[in-house]
Specification:
By secondary structure, the chain is α/β, with parallel strands linked by helices. It has one domain (4-14, 21-279): L-arginine/glycine Amidinotransferase, Chain A, CATH 3.75.10.10. 29% of the residues lie in helices and 22% in strands. It has helices at residues 25-30, 32-52, 91-94, 96-110, 150-158, 196-205, 216-220, 240-248, 259-262; strands at 4-8, 56-60, 76-79, 82-85, 115-118, 129-132, 137-142, 161-166, 179-181, 187-189, 211-213, 227-229, 232-236, 252-256, 273-274, 286-287. A hairpin with a 5-residue loop joins β9 (179-181) and β10 (187-189). The longest helix has 21 residues, at 32-52. The termini are far apart. The relative contact order is 0.18. Residues 281-288 have low confidence and may be disordered.
Length: 288
């Protein structure tokens, strides 16, 4: 069955406020019409690349005045047909919650989802909760945007193991900005974005042979914020060294210019949400 991926129509996307260190409202306002056209082109290219690699894309409308709704990765955690919908930390994004709840309820009515529940904690979806299918666990980030209290809630709700990875910097404010679980079991990550505690936990679980360290340039280019579809890794303009290293692991790297969205601190993974992830039965545990 084809992967199913949610994207949000970018009609209302713009950069008009600053809630992370990457956001550039000045750059956007210098040419709003041109940036809007570039954003639509970049969004369309990402959708096309995802579809070319065999996935089905479902598009939902955004809401006027909610520009960051174009990043649905932050909207929910989805596994086994269950959507655990986010509660945003920043006031600027809380207005997205009703729109996403309505969208997920519509997907439930279509039979795409079986259950839609909003989490009772500050937690920003798959941006801070990344499913590792090979290991049957969630990697859960916390700190700038998501509360540590969310980890046991996630473990209980989905009945899956959770490994907390506290984040070290406001610059890498969601786990998906610095951490990517690849289909072959590798983890692409940027070590300075994780606390020593998080690095210890990661290295306790994943053998060194499967850890791929991103460089500062990779991280600052949002190359770790990637969409993995089978043997393809869709990524924002990767440098030659990262392309080579991923190619040596057998991956086909698809580079796109997503710079209009990097102006808001997001890229390929942020702009998507997998709806079809499934698990095998696992014990409920949470590594504090």
């Amino acid at each position: 069955m084809a992967a199913q991926i949610l994207m949000t129509d970018p009609a209302h996307y713009r950069v008009g406020y600053e809630i992370n260190p990457w956001m550039r409202p000045d750059a956007w306002s210098a040419d709003p019409a041109g940036n809007g056209r570039a954003a639509l082109a970049a969004w369309t290219a990402l959708k096309a690349a995802i579809e070319e690699h065999g996935a089905r894309v479902r598009v939902i409308p955004g809401l006027a005045g909610q520009p960051d709704m174009v990043f649905p990765a932050n909207a929910a955690i989805v596994l086994d047909g269950k959507a655990l919908v986010s509660r945003f930390r920043c006031a600027e994004r809380r207005g997205e919650e009703p729109g996403f709840l309505a969208a997920f309820q519509a997907l439930k009515a279509e039979g795409v989802l079986d259950q839609v529940v909003q989490i009772d904690a500050v937690q920003e979806g798959a941006g801070d909760c990344i499913w590792d299918a090979g290991r049957g666990l969630f990697w859960v980030g916390d700190g700038p945007r998501s509360s540590p209290d969310a980890a046991p809630i996630i473990a209980r709700h989905f009945g899956q193991e959770v490994v907390r990875l506290p984040l070290a910097s406001e610059r890498y404010y969601h786990l998906d900005t610095c951490f990517c679980s690849l289909p072959g079991g590798e983890i692409l990550y940027y070590p300075p974005a994780l606390t020593p505690e998080a690095l210890r936990r990661l290295r306790d679980v994943v053998p060194a042979t499967l850890l791929i360290e991103a460089t500062q340039a990779d991280a600052e280019g949002f190359c770790v914020n990637a969409v993995a579809l089978g043997g393809a890794i869709i990524v924002a303009r990767p440098g030659p060294d990262l392309k080579r290293r991923l190619g040596e692991r057998g991956y086909r790297v698809v580079g796109l210019d997503l710079s209009p969205f990097i102006l808001s601190g997001g890229a390929a993974f942020c702009m998507t949400l997998r709806l079809d992830l499934e698990s095998a039965p696992a014990l409920v545990t949470a590594n504090p």
